[in-house]
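name: query_chain
kind: protein
chains: 1
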Amino acid sequence: MTDGARPATPPGREPREVATHCPYCALQCGMVLREEDGAVSVLPRQFPTNRGGLCQKGWTAPELLSHSERLTSPLLRDPATGELRPATWEAALDRITTGLHDVQQRHGRDAVAVFGGGGLTNEKAYALGRFARVALGTRHIDYNGRFCMSSAAAAGMRAFGVDRGLPFPLSDLGRADTLLLVGANPAETMPPLVRWLTEHRERGGKLIVIDPRVTATARQADLHLQPLPGTDLAVANALLHIALTEGYVDGDYVATRTTGFTDVRRTVAGWWPARAEALSGVPVADLEETARALGTAERAIILTARGAEQHAKGVDTVTGFVNLALALGLPGRPGSGYGCLTGQGNGQGGREHGQKADQLPGYRKIDDLEARAHVARVWGVPADELPGPGVPAYQLLDSLGTDQGPRALLVFGSNPVVSAPRAARVEGRLRDLDLLVVADFLLSETAALADVVLPTAQWAEEDGTMTNLEGRVLRRRALRPPPAGVRTDLEILAALSVRMRGTTPADRPVRERHTDSTAVGRPSEAGGGRPSEAEAADPRVVFAELRRASAGGIADYAGISWDRIDATDGVFWPCPDDDGPDSPRLFTERFPTADGLARFHPVEHRPAAEEVCADFPLHFTTGRVLAQYQSGTQTRRVAALRRAAPEAFVELHPDLAERLGVTDGEPVRVLSRRGEFQAPARLSPGIRADTVFAPFHWGGPARANSVTNDAVDPVSGMPEFKICAVRVERA
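structure:
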């Protein structure tokens, strides 16, 4: 062990094992952690989502628990030298409390902001939202899930009345006759999911992939549609046009289970296949084959992911494919439907319980009076004192340090210096802050800029719950305590809340006094009043309060307890009653809308926010590689993953490389109107000759997000990561 870590099983003691889940993507694969003589290893676990399988990231995850770069004491920036130096927790918390107090005294409550992450447990996401709105009294909170799931979430809400990535069990993928994946590459982003694609293929199913690149997933497809980036909506409308003209639309389903189809029919009438081909480059024959495969299948599933969603028209693009699914009568039928492949580990639960700018726990809208009243009762505060809606993530980041924006920021579970669009601009905004606080277990690029860095626990060192891409609430179980000097995020928030009580106007109870004997939670919690610091740091206590706060909301966890999760393979929300059923499959009889009907919405294709020109003649798009994850803070520090994917690259078609005079492996510069980055060229015939691709897992000179566009979707706030105009030069 290194860095002061203390093993839970000293040498000579019996090994310890715990059943838990992988710390990475939203598949949340089951695993068993085993500790023997202080060393931690991963064993297979037969869990429904992965059936014992893991990707390389999961197998190697324990390496970070005792990594030599692990943070084990707070760091404070020395004003004299500008360097980060080790400090005590007392000094760090004093610096934060004093700084937050000073900023709010000078600039108001909204001068402090909080930025969370889609990898935080449900308990931490909930506590972060409560901390921002009660302890700080600020409206400014959002999270990096805005860069991941927001467009699909908004499209799902307006069509179905609910946002759940997969409204059916993952096993349905193996039952479908036709699978359409749009902008999804699970063979690299969540490899254990591929076993369901294999089961689908072994049953004789047809896999169709829409992606500008020949990805590892596209190579497995029966049909690959390779559109120009940013034209997926034109493809969706053309597919529905063909379904109408060929008689594939399920008229009874449309008439009895939906509303608004007439306007959509009128819109897609203008999207004849030849028009879509001219715009997207997808041949008419491929469009017709895709529509036929979907329209004639007994069971069909349409899945979207970031390739379709990370656009300034991402909500409309997803809506186009939702319209297609509804017209074919797919949602609510076993082995059929529309779904979205959630990305981050708790991308689903992380957006349900209050760390989004416009939401309260249970997926309640923060500007809804009834919702505010309910949550205020749970928190023990007057409803009219809860802040109103904040602003989406990029707008928040872009306002930092300005006269109109926050002057202090607390970051939990995110690395926006690498992950945000137009990243150099965001980095500058962070440098302009009066106070930047980052909680992390490694010194990320964002933490390296902070005034205060707080060392946090890792996934194997804390208990809590996660919600995977199916809406299945799972138990994360601690194998051992954190290293000496390290605290959990809940402990940090609890300590800051106690300190802020005496320094801000938010000095009031954060828990209502319960007298109802049926209130969810342990008897000790029903006594009411402000929770102790220990209670506020106890994830079981926090989850009990989350259940009360979510009760009656769209994402209702009231009937989900840790004991119930432990007794099963997870519990699907909504689950309002302790003894009632959970909801592995939604929409079987009605949609959670006022009239029970799903909503069609007419959507028109529009160009990308930035089109190519003489100075920037190429389309640029980003994505992931198998061995790395998100901003790479964790995976770039694992030796086996570094060997598998040691550096960034710029993927070019050989014809484009020849025109540029670039050879394979030669360093190239990619430039846009916003910045540039540099990486070796990788020549591949699997990308369009007018398109350039790079993974976004690296910072520094290889930071792909230095060039991406910060234009955002007007509904979701999603930035346009997946297309901008660039030029490529030999470095």
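note: Residues 2 and 66 are 6 Å apart (CA to CA).
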